[in-house]
Amino acid sequence: MIRRPGTDGNDERTALGVAFAGILLISAQPTAAQPAPSAHKIELARQVVEASGMDDTLTNGLRAAAAQMTASAAKSLSPDRQAKMKIIGEAEGDALAKMGPQIIDNVVDGYARDFTEQELTDFLAFYRSPSGRAMVTKLPQFMHGLLSEMSALMPQVRRDMGEEICAKTTCTAAERAAYFGPEPAKSEPQAPPPPTAPSP
Predict the structure, then answer these.
(1) Mean pLDDT across the stretch 144-164?
(2) Which residues of 18-50 are buried (b: 16+ CB within 10 A; e: fewer)?
């Protein structure tokens, strides 16, 4: 059965999984007909990755992304479902973080393969400079704010998806509630006031 995005609160977490898989696949793709990098280039590339703080940023970022995406998806759920979603988000963050070393190894290999030794040396010099260290220090907070802004956009994304999907197919009441939120309760029409008796 095909499950429509947005109907069970999993669309944000699915997007995170797709993004994570994309990072892994892109970093693992070798370019055509390139010789294997030397041990010196690999070591230089690893120093660049370490100096850039990518390993810590990646691990913490994956956990934070899983937590924020899950929290965003759980806002419209019952307290019991929210508690379960929190556990799922924590487990998902831990599982993704365990993949961090593999991703870092792929990134190191990609750097050594695709950049020249001079370029890697220049990168390392930048990250060890005052401006480079400032970038490493400030980037996690910047990314945290960016992720928060992206999470805040998800309700609008879900509504836009719902408009397109429901225009092309019949949506159930539950699906419409998932896309657009619960419909406001209809107020009962009020009876007109009784006529006033004419004054004597």
Answers:
(1) 81
(2) eebeebeeebeeeeeeeeebeeebbebbbbbbe
Q: Where are the domains of the chain?
A: 11-152
CA atoms within 13 A on the CB side of 123: 19
Instruction: Answer yes or no: are the C-beta atoms of 37 and 111 closer than 8 Å.
Output: no
Identify which of 86-90, 106-110, 128-132, 170-174 has the greatest average pLDDT: 128-132
- How far apart CA 37 and CA 114 sit, in angstroms, is 9
Cα separation, 186 vs 148, whole angstroms: 34
Report how far residue 37's alpha carbon sits from residue 52's, in angstroms, rounded to the nearest whole number: 20
Nearest-angstrom CA–CA distance, 112 and 124? 13
CB burial of residue 156 (10 Å; 0-12, 13-18, 19+): exposed
Pairs from 149-158 (Cβ < 8 Å, separation ≥ 24): 151/12, 151/68, 151/69, 151/71, 151/72, 154/11, 154/12, 154/72, 158/6, 158/11
For helices 100-114 and 54-74, give the axis angle rounded to 10 degrees: 130
Mean pLDDT of the chain: 75
pLDDT tens track for 68-121: 666 666 666 677 777 777 787 778 777 777 887 888 899 899 999 999 999 999
CA distance 127 to 96: 26
